[in-house]
Amino acid sequence: MPPEIPAIPAPDPASGPASAPARTRLIVPVLAFCGVVVAVMQTLVVPLLPHVPELTGASTGAAGWLVTVTLLTGAVFTPVLGRVGDMYGKRRVLLASLGVLTLGSALCAVTSDIGVLITGRALQGAALAVIPLGISIIRDELPAERILPSIALMSSTLGIGAAVGLPLAAVVTENFDWHTMFWASAGLGLLDLLLVLWIVPESSVRAPGRFDVPGTLGLAAVLVGVLLAITQGTSWGWTSPLTLGLLGGSVAVGLLWGVYELRTSSPILDLRVSGRPAVLLTNLAALFIGFSFYANSLATAQLVQEPTSTGYGLGASIVVSGLCLLPGGLAMVALSPVSARISATYGPRTALGLAAVVMALGYGVRVFTTHSLWLIVAGATVVACGTAIAYSALPALVMRAVPVSETASANGLNTLMRSVGQACCSAVVTAVLAHLTFATAAGGTAPTLHAYLLIFVIAGGAALAALVATLLLPSDRPGRDAPRADGRAGGTVAVSPPASAARGTA
């Protein structure tokens, strides 16, 4: 095991308002609100996509980039900005991310040009780093007894925002000018900026070293190549020269990048830490959990909108399909403290295993409940409950295995793995629905019911794969390897107390 990099405290900022004890209790609500707003941005345009060609004059393929570009920039910037936050200040980078989000939203709000819209969406996607940065700030600033419940809520905002964002965006799309939702997101981004400036203090925990520019460029090349191949493989063809070339080039660049990262003194991603079984298996579980979670959202929204002429569809509107996911989002909010208590009592490994089982059972229910709207909602909510527990346990598992000075970058990588899982899920769902079809009476085609059932089986299998990865993790033994109540490592990794405690604010 490589020696731990010591945390280097930076000078405590002299700003008075953010360090007032009365405002310490508002740190978590403010950060969670930021997380929900950022997560909403990821799904904001989904109800709008079918209408983008007629609204902008763009092709269907160009319209799809409004989702793809957000995924790409989020994947690249999340681990990078996490590392930058560890080195130069998490609050500073959090503010920069929220500023980029606000700028991207404003760009989308003032244009109908598809190129400018894609640029604005790219800026919105870069703000996904807000969630791991928020988790790291919570670890640095809060007293021990509040850390696990708080990171559970912060981590769950990724799922909560996705569940809440779809119905809200659908309502706006159907009842207002479509630019309205971008104006609203710009306003929310500006509000987030003001709240963080007022409430959130700068952490005194720093990671030493210089910023790794070559490593950052190499990581970006690998991620963009892999994710482009995954997201565009269905339309380009999985055996096309472009798809295979991107995958092969990404592997080649990845190998060279890995050699360089192992030799540099201040890597953008510490592969020695990321390669520890406790970290590697947690990130693998995160990928499968992200896949399983996203299938719930994609399949539910499309299934209930299928016309009744298919023999299984319910013919629901876009708004109704979005509302089907809302109970799951509310359940995630309600379960955040419960999941934190499970992690604190039995360990995050046990909590993650339980979550994977619940998600698999939820998909088992979904296989047999496709003809009733209420049963569909019930099955989707069960999966969301499992997701809430998983999203609580994942950062706790990461934090017990990495030095405190690498919290943001390590959680950024874990968030990235969830995003990669979602990208893989989107590709699989698209491929299954496109290939398992039948001819309708109107002369068109529609996915068969078996296509949706197959998606549920695959998603349930992904949850079971996450369970296997979890069972291979080091056990939650009391003492040396077990996480303490604050989510920090036991005896394996030494950590410093919360920065706020040193300032007398905890």
Structure explained in plain terms:
The protein has 20 helices and 4 strands. The protein has a two-stranded antiparallel sheet with strand order 1-2. Strands 3-4 form a two-stranded antiparallel sheet. It is an all-alpha fold. The chain has helices at 21-24, 27-43, 52-56, 60-88, 90-109, 114-126, 130-141, 144-175, 180-199, 213-236, 241-263, 271-274, 277-303, 318-323, 326-346, 348-367, 373-399, 407-435, 449-471, 499-502, and strands spanning 8-9, 205-206, 437-439, 445-447. Helix content is 71%, strand content 2%. Residues 1-19 and 478-506 have low confidence and may be disordered. A hairpin with a 5-residue loop joins strand 3 (437-439) and strand 4. Helix 15 (326-346) packs parallel to helix 17, helix 16 runs antiparallel to helix 19 and helix 17 (373-399) packs antiparallel against helix 18 (407-435).
**H/I helix tally:** 20
Shape: globular
Q: How many DSSP E strands?
A: 4
How do the SSEs run, as a string of H and E?
EHHHHHHHHHEHHHHHHHHHEEHH
